[in-house]
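Researcher: I'd like a candidate sequence for this fold, 65 residues long. If you have to choose between options at a position, lean toward the conservative one.
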């Protein structure tokens, strides 16, 4: 309830994909590991594969990193 990760969990960051609870830090880690498109992020994290409302934010994160 405090908005903090459980002890032992990594900090996933601010939620970008609400459908699957994928945070910005998780997305940035995937980009750093080689995910170079929205489709690649969808395959790895499912982000952007349901309602699609997070796709603009995914593209923004991709272009800035």
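Model: Candidate sequence:
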């Amino acid at each position: 309830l405090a908005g903090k990760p459980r002890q032992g969990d990594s900090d996933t960051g601010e939620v970008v994909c609400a459908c699957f609870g994928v945070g910005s830090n998780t997305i940035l880690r995937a980009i750093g590991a080689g995910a170079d498109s929205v489709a690649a992020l969808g395959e790895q994290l499912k982000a952007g594969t349901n309602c699609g409302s997070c796709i603009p934010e995914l593209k923004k994160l991709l272009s800035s990193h």
